[in-house]
Amino acid sequence: MQVSFVDREEELKLLNELWLKGKPEFVVVYGRRRVGKTRLIMEFIKGKPHVYFQCLPVSDEVNLRRLARVAGEALGLRELLGASFSGLDSLLSYITRAYGGRLAVILDEFTYWARYSPKVVGELQSFIDHVLPETNLMLILCGSLVGVMHRNIIGYGAPLYGRRTASLRLEELKPWHVKHFLKIKDKADRLRVYALVGGMPFYLTYVAGSESLEEVLTKLFCSKLSPIYDEPHTLFREEFRNPELYYSIVAAIAAGHTRLTEIANYTGIQRTHLPKYLRILSDLGIIAHVTPIMGKKGWYEVRDPILRTWFKLIEPNLSLVEAGLYDELLTKIKAELDQEVAPKAFEEVVRTYVLKEFLPTLARLRGKVAVGRYVHRGVEFDLVVLHSTSGKAYVFEVKWSDLTEKDVRREYSRLLHKVKSSALSKYDVKAYIVARSAPSVDGANILTLKDLPI
């Protein structure tokens, strides 16, 4: 199924504004693989003079010859076909002089070229410093290796640091964009799909047009050729020099070992060495450190949706995959999906809704707004929005379940009791139960899946 371009309005607007200025630009677009960088660029360059080049992890000479050929064919510069150049700076200089007009040159997956041939970064720096300012070229650099991008290209101390005129780090799509890819009408099943692949455009496109959760599960899991089986190992192998070390850390966190000492004990990695590795994983968006409101000790969570699915649903069942026992695999995944993955995704959707609906009201008031989990003196709340200056607070208890009227009355009574016994008792608190489904009950604030953007 061909999927129309979804979201990215702000990013596309920025790129078009830069293009219309007609000035020399150096733009960096980066983000985790599968997040839709190339699709954004393809949408941007429609109807514009451009050279789009996909870099490969091959020798410098091969990439230069390929780029010369691609540019020659795109711009009608026959002299470039089969030509050789001493470096990227000389090739880009020739292209800009020979073409003359407003032009976009996109070097996609430049991190592959830079990793294989580090000198190309210096050549690009030379071009940007000495040639680009005298042109009307829009040079766009794309990269999926976020770590390489930071270390070797745009991070502090890297050759291209401070030279970009704009940078875009693409994140996954929001929960409410999932419906644009699917024909699934049931919101609970749409959330289950979001739980499996998050807002990753590549995977949403892979299951696009599916009319049922069963069809999505079949596409994702019932073939060894499904890209979901290669994703974790490819990601770790491409990003890290010692992928096994980082893999084991994420596996520990996914298994519930979420604090520093627990991770060290599980992996055998010295506790003193872990902060460095955890910081790198956090910077890449693979994990996140959660610091609760009013609590002192935080913990780590797996943030990447594909890796959550891998460690919770796929890795424990790899023997079924290898044996081709897909019926049994689907039965297990269906059972474990609602236990292991969907509740966390439901919390994320609730948080997205809360930030959209509740935060603007408090943001207009003076003072700091805090949003997050609450863990303090034995009391926990799934989500709290706190405005200390006005004394207002919203408290949300999130349950991925279908509640009866009796359940609602019981859970809401417990929630109010927890509020009174917590440090929030001095605030003006409005408490909510958020459930997959629940009836309306007088005196209780209830939100259900039908209220949420999915």
Give a summary of the structure in a few sentences.
The protein is an alpha/beta fold and 454 residues long. 46% of the residues lie in helices and 17% in strands.
3D structure, described in words:
- This protein has about 450 residues and is an alpha/beta fold.
- The protein has three domains: about 10-170, Rossmann fold, CATH 3.40.50.300; about 175-350, Arc Repressor Mutant, subunit A, CATH 1.10.10.10; about 360-450, Trna Endonuclease, Chain: A, domain 1 (3-Layer(aba) Sandwich), CATH 3.40.1350.
- Helices cover about 45% and strands about 15% of the residues.
- The protein contains 19 helices and twelve strands.
- The protein has helices spanning about 10-20, 35-45, 60-75, 90-100, 110-115, 120-130, 145-155, 185-195, 200-205, 215-220, 230-240, 245-255, 260-265, 275-285, 305-315, 320-325, 325-355, 360-365, 405-420; strands at about 25-30, 50-55, 105-110, 135-145, 165-170, 285-290, 300, 370-375, 380-385, 390-400, 430-435, 445-450.
- The strands form three sheets. Strands 2-3-4-1-5 form a five-stranded parallel β-sheet. Strands 8-9-10-11-12 form a five-stranded mixed β-sheet, with helices on both faces.
- A hairpin with an 8-residue loop joins strand 6 (about 285-290) and strand 7 (about 300).
- The longest helix has about 30 residues, at about 325-355.
- The protein is globular and about 80 Å long.
- The two termini are about 20 Å apart.
- The model has no long low-confidence stretch (mean pLDDT about 90).
